[in-house]
Amino acid sequence: MIKNFLKRYWIFLLLVVINVVLGFIFPEIGVKSLDITKRNVIEMMLVIPPIFVLLGLLDVWVDRAVMMKYTGKGSGFKGILIAFLLGSAAAGPLYAAFPVAGVMLKKGSSLFNVFIFIGAWSTTKIPMLTFEAASLGLPFTLIRLGLSIIGIFIIAIFTDKVLSKEDKEHIYELSDKESK
Amino acid sequence: MTFTYVLYALALIGLTLSLFKDKNKTKMALKKAWKSFENILPQFLSILVIIGIVFAVLSPETITMLLGSNSGFLGVIGASLIGAITLIPGFVAFPLAAALLNSGAGYMQITAFVASLMMVGIVTLPLEIKTFGKKAAIIRNVSAYVFSLIAALIMGVLL
């Protein structure tokens, strides 16, 4: 139990030790870094629970056939659109998207559509767009958005093309392993 | 922030409906939710500590200097690298970008910063690798990085 814990958390523990040592040498940086980490932890802990609850519900209630039909291989334009809208409607930082992507893969989404989903989550999130427009202006936001949508497709097509069949099989295996 | 409430509302509605339909399945969903969370927790905590240290070392003044006006293409590279490495939530990043623009930073640098911040995630790479494997994660990040530079150049011409 303890051995297992150490094996999984040793990098984190090492970083904490580094942070503490750093704090002893440069107290100012130590205090500041702890303060930033604390604020980030609180923020993440607020956003993360509902995302994972929704994820669990998705995993249990949406069966493979349905996900495959709508976003799997051969789902065509509709599949791309659904993946794009799913990503755009999301909230939360990009790293929260990876577990969702894992479940989508496990349920039979095509890799290309999952990359579209990741791209949309990273750049076309609707709540963030309103915020971006408020801070940086509408012209900036619209041009950035237009470029990003083109970019999402280029990156998804490119990544999909570069990966070999074995690579893709490996990714599907990962998604299967993760939830066990 | 309001969107967080929407998320909570959705999760709550989902849970209630699920509980109404099938108690066991709901239990399983919560178990799975916890498991997938616990699965990423070690990497997650490590990332948060790294961000804390990096931001404590890099002062806002340093960042402003790197992204400032007249920094040219080097500034674009610097801005995109900062964006690629750091992990700043949008509602912090956008006002920061606006403040930088007001204090004379170029649109090119700011676009490079915003675009790579959104699409490239170096500190979160371990999490991405867990889902997509090393190769796919690296390809996605490298192509997203190149794309953020191209977007910056186009924005520099347009605005």
What's the arrangement of secondary structure elements?
The complex is a heterodimer of chains A (180) and B (159).
Chain A: H1 2-25, H2 27-61, H3 64-71, H4 76-88, H5 97-106, H6 111-123, H7 126-136, H8 138-162, H9 165-178
Chain B: H1 2-21, H2 23-57, H3 60-67, H4 72-85, H5 90-102, H6 107-119, H7 125-158
Helix pairs in contact in B: 1-2, 4-6, 4-7, 5-6, 6-7
Report on the structure:
The complex is a heterodimer of chains A (180) and B (159). Chain A contains nine helices and no strands. By secondary structure, chain A is an all-alpha fold. Chain A is globular, with a radius of gyration of 20 Å. In chain B, helix 1 (2-21) runs antiparallel to helix 2, helix 5 runs antiparallel to helix 6 (107-119) and helix 6 (107-119) packs antiparallel against helix 7 (125-158). Chain B starts with a helix and ends with a helix. Chain B has seven helices and no strands. With 159 residues, chain B is mainly alpha-helical. Chains A and B meet through helix 1, helix 2, helix 5, helix 6 and helix 7 of A and helix 1, helix 2, helix 5, helix 6 and helix 7 of B.
Q: What tags apply to this protein structure?
A:
heterodimer, A: 180 residues, mainly alpha, 2 domains, 85% helix, 0% strand, B: 159 residues, 86% helix, elongated
